[in-house]
Amino acid sequence: MGSVAHLPAGSSQCPYLVVRDPEAVRDILHRPAEFSPANALIAVTPIAGPALRVLQSVRFALPPVLASNDTGSHAGIRKVVGSFFTPAKVAAMEPRIRELARAAAAQAAGELGRSGQADLVQSVAAFTPAIIMLELLGLPVRDLAALKRWGLDSMELFWGWPDGDRQLELAGSAAGFYTWLRELVGESVGAPGRNLFKSLHDHGLSTPEICSLGYFLLIAGQETTTQLISTTLFRLLEGTGPVTWAEAADEESARSMVWHVLATESSVPTWRRVSAQDATVAGQAIPAGAEILLELTGTHDLPGEQEEDLTLLAGTARRRRPTAYGLVFGSGIHRCLGARLAELEATVIVQETAAALPQARLRDHEPDWIRHLSFQAPKTVTVMAGKC
Ligand code: HEM
After folding, report:
1. C-alpha span between 207 and 210 (Å, rounded)
2. Average pLDDT over residues 108-135
3. Torsion 148-151-152-153 (CA) sign
4. How far is it, in rounded angstroms, from Cα 79 to Cα 82?
5. Does ligand 1 lie within 6 Å of residue 233's CB atom?
């Protein structure tokens, strides 16, 4: 079940107990008293003094509220957040998602026609999920370019392997995000109408707690979806999935390609837990305090295989058997609250893009990838016009 993983070359070594067997992963997710999510938002690379001081200068703090909350207050807070993403509210957003997706795809088609190339990450994957998330939460739709940059920087600061200089840059960005967020929380609590921050305030959360939740949600609620869309578009255009680019213009085909990517190389391939006490999983003893990395998607050991290189988790080894799709959004009391929304957005955006750009062909077959401990996607999906 487990092995001590070694992080990619060039990074400091950081051991996790890696759990790949889907049954064991599910078992751990369903035993929250023994396997706590308290380490969910802890920086993979410890943040060094200078960067820490930048964060402290804005009183940056991520007290446990939702994803990393292992106390009894989790259920009530989850209910408040979940009320903004009910199945009915998500379904009612479909026309709006389609409207934005169609406009973005038309713009990408125009850009392709004018300049001969377009980056689909920026033109179609990046902004629609952010706009939809803010609209669902009742928050003002503004500063979208900054929000996208902050999200990527914070993912790298907390889930990547930045060196000291890079940490300092990323901490500056995280501090900017946090300051913006605190202002938004202050403004939203007194604003007319319903919004998430006001509801959390009414539920009794303090401003640092609301900021902590906002910091996680404003990243998790859109950048992960952008990354799922990016990988799906890339694999479609590369021609390595079960669906062709032309077929993806049909909604069912687009959906099945999104599911394929979720099952094989989701944007959130792993998630963490820490054992709160000595425990046993699949007959193996796990000591209290063990940092556990759960594999949710993609690169499973075939029976009898052993693998100790964590880079294999990052989607580079697609020869391996995919995990059950059922774990990609987690499982149990912390299961992702945005699963339905993410699938819907990805399906609609992929479908509308394939429909609007039938002539698109992949221009860059080897883009740079985001490769963090728990996030992955191509940074760009550059297409050019080709023959139909
Ligand atoms: C492709 C997109 C997404 C993926 C792959 C994904 C994946 C995950 C995973 C693996 C977890 C941890 C589950 C656990 O600990 O059991 C999680 C938690 C969470 N996700 Fe997502 N997510 C995505 C999009 C979204 C969106 C769009 C939203 C909101 C609009 C969202 C909101 C949340 C929240 C609030 C939690 C914490 C739930 C809790 O602790 O109770 N996610 N997500």
Report:
1. 5
2. 97
3. positive
4. 5
5. no
